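Report of the visiting student (M.T.), summer placement. My assignment was to run the structure pipeline on a short list of targets and document each run. The first record concerns YicC family protein.
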Amino acid sequence: MVRSMTGFGRGVTTTENFQLTIEIRAVNHRFLEVSSKFPKEWMEAEVLTKKLLAKLFSRGKLDVSVHVKKNEQLAQTVKVNWPLVEAYKEARTKLSSRVPVTPEWSMQELISLDDALIVEVVEIPREEILRAVEEAVTQAAVNLIDMRVREGQELYEVVIGFKMELEQQIAIIHSVSQQAVEKYRDKLLQRMQDISSIEELEGRVITEVALFAERADIAEELDRLASHFSQLDETMGDEQSIGRKLDFLLQEIHREINTIGSKNQSSVASIAVIHAKSVLEKMREQIQNIE
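After the run finished, the structure tokens were exported:
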């Protein structure tokens, strides 16, 4: 199955203590790379997220956004850090002995003391966090996969269209290659009309034509191209990650077309080779988007 490497998915989970929203944005990447930023106390959940995504995706850069909205009724308490406040008081007394300081403390002054007040929030159970993360990440990943599959179907149709166009150019090359040896033989006969001996003429022509036919023979390249096209069809229907394999096949197809171009003795075939390379380049651009 062809899947694109770009897409977006969102998952939302609500628990007793918070609402968690996970958003995953995916773009092209040679390998799988997951980047995420969880609350510092949720490090275990971040590890779990990367493990879950590694099981579902093979390639692509995944950016995971995490939004936590805690329940307003989640119990909170504010405690006074008395040892620190006493230390501030002692320091203030020392300062007042040397600089003019009012003896009274304002409430604003007390509240503004660093770490003088400690806000304690009831800790959310670890199991609740992990369960919520697994549910939200899975939901976001499924939505992302759905989008990648839809885009993958469009890529499939584009690539198959290019493949058919490429095969048409190869068919043109094949047809004119059959005529190349005959044309070369006729040209040789015209050039050798001044040779008096018919036996010598026939021998020279046969030898030259045989050498030319060997140099211009592209039967092996055409056979390999047919094999590569067959593998391309099979790969496009594979259920696994296929992007790298498709890229490799296109490299092999490009190699065979280059070889055919170097052996070519026809202007028609030259045009077909150029067109085939152009189509192949378009195919490679599209395949870079396939997982």
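The chain has three domains: 7-72+124-148, 76-121, 151-287. Strands lie at 7-14, 18-27, 32-36, 60-70, 76-80, 117-121. I thank the supervising group for their guidance throughout the placement.
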